[in-house]
């Protein structure tokens, strides 16, 4: 036995401790099952609606059916630890198949009903399934189409007897479920008892296949102890679960959350499971909830979002009056109570909240079928805090939890008395959590950690270390109270071409919060200069298939009406300028909330169809398959990039022109005069061409008339003799000649002044260089050093002969007040210092104090900025040029930092030495801030 395994025949060591919940005695799933049957043999276990009536199995009937199925598996030759697959909707047969396979010592693996035949074949081949159980003909056909690729398969079982083909050429026998159960009558009970007794808590019990969002699905091996201990830990955290009597099963049972909540938790507490109909996620769930009135309810975020939208539509549609005012008041009381219920807030229930809940809020919960529900949970994907806050106004404390298949579902859970909106709660008792200091990855350990990935040692080693710590792949932070917040997923982190790390989920949630008409958003930016996003609009689902249509739903139509758009379908919205403006404005609002400019989104594309299960963009738990979406919409993404590229090229040209004018500001007056000169020429040409335009009737002649007028205007303004002028225009021509002469004089004077000023400074510089070079020669300094010195002065001249000269004058001009100098300095260097995270969030006065203390340093290529081991007493920002960071062992290049980068900031925070040597890669202008200055500022 060991910490992890990849063979389903293996046994893992159960990590029992000496105290706390982790010291709980290990048990198998069958131990728990037998215990509840002993305690409540006639208790209600499973209920399903048939022909409009609820049909119930008692715990004893449920147990007996599982035993019969297990004996049938033994009959067809299924050996211990071999795999059985099940593919069908939530129903008693699913649970009987599941627990019956476990009784036979087999390993059960569920398959999503939405899986294509290729996915079914992959899973059954991967786990070498011996028996596959399906619900109906549609699922059976998936297997019949790939039967020749399943050499280990021994039997196919169909729940619906009418869907069993009477004649088939299949090499594998196909049984109706009832027929298959009868096969168990030929197997002795003692043989099954031996199988059940041989099972250990460390044996593999079930396989949970991952969604495959980043590649082929992996088989997560879950042991008996994983299941039984995790259920005990969940009950310990959410104490109300111990008293639960009813729950509704509607989420896919192939998912670990559904298996914990619909199979193993009810066995532990003796609660009854009601199965929702196949239309649960198409609007039928509400009716089931109203009938069952469950004591706990778990939904993925999309379920809660749809419920919220329905409530907003219904409650928002109430006419103005006393009833609506009372409801608004009650919801405010609910929100206040939720705030008072947050961890660390010492407050009791107010009388006004009690009254609001009794009179109004309880009625809303009753209408939802949740009036007897004590535990409300959300998981499997991130949920927006606004959704949680909305339900809190109705006294529905929605507890978000965090986990994954690899930890048997939950790891951290918000709960009564331990609830913080915006977090996923503290860790369950008996588990431990840590955050990697370098990557911020969440890592945890405990008895809920899986055995390993079936037949995939490399992936297992990358996920589990030898001490049993699971590397989750999620990024997060732990606050001082031990509450965990998820900020992203390592595989989903976007790294832009500028090297910025951007977690997309936070941006996507912000965009959806700002734009009510959007259904889904996916941010794109990997190795790109800036971020863009694909978005889908809210649409009505198909009444039969629930697939998205192109008809805008009520929310999107309300937005369209508000912005003045006539669009009613997605194509019309795509072509509507008002819709594009609406999204652009929402995008701008979302950008104001971004933590940095690197997280600003710039462009978008409205896709023609919303993400969906049948479109393969979403997993069964509504997680986004980013790689699939990128491949599917590669042309649209490229279209965004090309549009943005053209825009950036134009912008770059303008930027270059602005920089050129700024660089040669000594000619600014001449530039302004020249601009006026060109403007006058254009105006005169238009005036002159006016009479001629009345005589032409096509665009080509119009252009010719303007060109002739432009040529004459240029000649007149340049005082070129010989221009033929009609008598009626002679006075105007004379005025233009005078104006042109004045323009020429002004331009010549401006340029002359600039040249004289530059020449004067250049002469002073040349004299200085000549004197220095003469001294160096007299001191017999080698030629290469003298040449380097001359090059240094030449580069210094180029750099200081630009705006730096004005900066220096501003800094040292005593005629300016200190506050004004500081404000100007901040304007000049704000973008430079704003890149440093240390200064983000600082006030303008603090930033101004920093830039006033920046010291300028010039370095030639090859100069050492500082050596490894030098005292680290300053931070350096690269204003121009680039530097090279040499590895600590001096055996290679560690990094190249360019303009706008910074280094050595740790030297401002604590006394230490430089960890690397830094060398100038080009002629550099560096701005440094000393620790003493920083301490003075921040003190």
From TrEMBL:
Residue stretches spanning the membrane: 667-690, 731-756
Keyword Disulfide bond tagged: no
Gene3D superfamilies (alphabetical): Helix hairpin bin (1.10.287.630), Jelly Rolls (2.60.120.10), N-terminal domain of ligase-like (3.40.50.12780)
Domain of life according to the entry: Eukaryota
GO cellular component, one term: membrane
Gene Ontology molecular functions: long-chain fatty acid-CoA ligase activity
PROSITE patterns: AMP_BINDING, CNMP_BINDING_3
Domain annotation Cyclic nucleotide-binding: ranges: 838-939
Keyword tags: Fatty acid metabolism, Ligase, Lipid metabolism, Membrane, Transmembrane, Transmembrane helix
Pfam families: AMP-binding, cNMP_binding
Protein name: Cyclic nucleotide-binding domain-containing protein
Organism: Phytophthora kernoviae
Lineage: Eukaryota, Sar, Stramenopiles, Oomycota, Peronosporomycetes
């Amino acid at each position: 036995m060991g910490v992890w395994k990849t063979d389903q025949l293996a046994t893992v060591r159960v990590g029992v401790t000496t105290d706390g919940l982790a010291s709980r005695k290990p048990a198998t799933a069958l131990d728990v099952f037998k215990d509840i049957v002993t305690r409540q043999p006639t208790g209600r276990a499973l209920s399903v609606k048939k022909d409009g009536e609820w049909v119930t199995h008692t715990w004893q009937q449920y147990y007996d059916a599982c035993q019969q199925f297990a004996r049938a598996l033994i009959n067809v030759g299924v050996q211990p630890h071999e795999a059985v697959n099940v593919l069908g909707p939530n129903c008693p047969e699913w649970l009987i198949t599941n627990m019956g396979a476990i009784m036979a010592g087999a390993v059960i693996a569920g398959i999503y009903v939405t899986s294509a035949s290729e996915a079914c074949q992959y899973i059954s081949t991967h786990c070498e399934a011996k028996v596959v159980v399906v619900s109906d003909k549609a699922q059976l056909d998936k297997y019949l189409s790939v039967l020749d690729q399943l050499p280990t398969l021994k039997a196919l079982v169909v729940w619906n007897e009418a869907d069993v083909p009477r004649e088939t050429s299949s090499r594998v026998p196909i049984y109706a479920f009832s027929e298959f159960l009868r096969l168990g009558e030929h197997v002795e009970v003692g043989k099954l008892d031996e199988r059940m007794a041989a099972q250990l808590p460390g044996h593999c019990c079930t396989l949970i296949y991952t969604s495959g969002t980043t590649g082929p699905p992996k088989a997560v091996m879950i042991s008996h102890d994983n299941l039984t201990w995790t259920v005990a830990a969940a009950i310990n955290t959410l104490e109300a679960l111990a008293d639960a009597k009813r729950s509704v099963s509607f989420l896919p049972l192939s998912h670990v959350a559904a298996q914990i909540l619909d199979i193993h938790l009810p066995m532990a507490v003796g609660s009854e499971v009601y199965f929702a109909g196949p239309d649960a996620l198409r609007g039928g769930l509400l009716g089931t909830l109203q009938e069952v009135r469950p004591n706990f309810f778990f939904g993925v975020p999309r379920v809660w979002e749809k419920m919220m939208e329905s409530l907003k539509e219904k409650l928002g549609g109430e006419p103005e009056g006393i009833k609506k005012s009372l409801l608004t008041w009650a919801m405010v009381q609910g929100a206040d109570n939720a705030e008072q219920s947050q961890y660390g807030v010492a407050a009791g229930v107010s009388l006004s909240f009690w009254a609001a809940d009794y009179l109004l809020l309880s009625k809303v919960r009753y209408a939802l079928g949740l009036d007897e529900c004590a535990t409300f949970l959300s998981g499997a994907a991130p949920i927006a805090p606004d959704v949680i806050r909305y339900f809190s106004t109705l006294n529905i404390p929605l507890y978000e939890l965090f986990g994954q298949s690899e930890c048997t579902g939950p790891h951290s859970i918000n709960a009564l008395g331990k609830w913080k909106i915006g977090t996923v709660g503290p860790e369950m008792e008996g588990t431990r959590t840590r955050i990697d200091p370098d990557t911020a990855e969440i890592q945890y350990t405990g008895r809920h950690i899986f055995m390993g990935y079936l037949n995939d040692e490399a992936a297992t080693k990358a996920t589990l270390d030898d001490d049993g710590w699971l590397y989750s792949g999620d990024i997060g932070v732990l606050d001082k109270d031990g509450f965990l917040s998820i900020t992203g997923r390592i595989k989903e982190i976007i790294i832009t071409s500028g090297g910025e790390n951007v977690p997309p989920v936070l941006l996507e949630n912000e965009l959806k919060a700002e734009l009510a008409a959007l259904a889904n958003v996916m941010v794109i930016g990997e190795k790109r200069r800036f971020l863009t996003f694909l978005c889908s609009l809210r649409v009505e689902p198909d009444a039969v298939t629930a697939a998205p249509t192109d008809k805008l739903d009520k929310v999107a139509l309300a937005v369209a009406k508000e912005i003045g758009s006539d669009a009613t379908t997605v194509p019309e919205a795509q072509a509507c300028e008002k819709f594009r403006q609406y999204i652009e404005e929402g995008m701008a609002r979302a950008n104001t909330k971004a933590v940095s400019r690197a997280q600003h989104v710039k462009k978008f594309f409205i896709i023609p169809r919303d993400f969906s299960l049948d479109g393969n963009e979403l997993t069964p738990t509504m997680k986004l398959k980013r790689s699939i979406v990128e491949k599917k919409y590669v042309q649209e993404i490229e279209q965004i990039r090309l549009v943005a590229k053209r825009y950036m090229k134009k912008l770059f040209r303008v930027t270059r022109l602005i920089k050129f004018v700024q660089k040669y500001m000594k000619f600014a007056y001449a530039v302004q005069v020249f601009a006026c000169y060109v403007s006058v020429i254009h105006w005169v040409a238009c005036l002159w061409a006016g009479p001629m335009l009345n005589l032409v009737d096509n665009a080509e002649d119009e252009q010719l008339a303007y060109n002739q007028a432009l040529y004459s205007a240029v000649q007149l303004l340049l005082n070129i003799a010989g221009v033929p002028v009609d008598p009626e225009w002679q006075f105007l021509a004379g005025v233009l000649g005078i104006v042109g002469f004045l323009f020429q004089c002004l331009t010549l004077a401006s340029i002359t002044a600039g040249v004289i000023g530059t020449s004067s400074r250049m002469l002073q510089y040349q004299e200085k260089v000549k004197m220095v070079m003469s001294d160096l020669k007299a001191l017999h300094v080698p030629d290469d050093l003298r040449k380097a010195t001359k090059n240094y002065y030449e580069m210094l001249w180029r750099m200081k002969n630009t705006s730096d000269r004005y900066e220096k004058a501003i800094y040292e001009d005593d005629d300016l007040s200190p506050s004004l100098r500081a404000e100007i300095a901040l304007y000049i260097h704000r973008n430079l210092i704003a890149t440093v995270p240390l200064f983000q969030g600082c006030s303008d006065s603090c930033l101004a104090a920093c830039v006033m203390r920046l010291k300028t340093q010039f370095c030639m290529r090859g100069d050492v900025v500082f050596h490894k081991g030098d005292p680290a007493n300053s931070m350096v920002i690269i204003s121009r040029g680039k530097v090279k960071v040499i590895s600590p062992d001096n055996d290679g290049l560690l990094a190249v930092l360019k303009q706008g980068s910074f280094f050595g900031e740790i030297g401002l925070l604590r006394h230490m030495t430089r960890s690397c040597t830094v060398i100038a890669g080009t002629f550099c202008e560096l701005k440094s801030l000393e620790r003493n200055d920083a301490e003075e500022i921040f003190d």
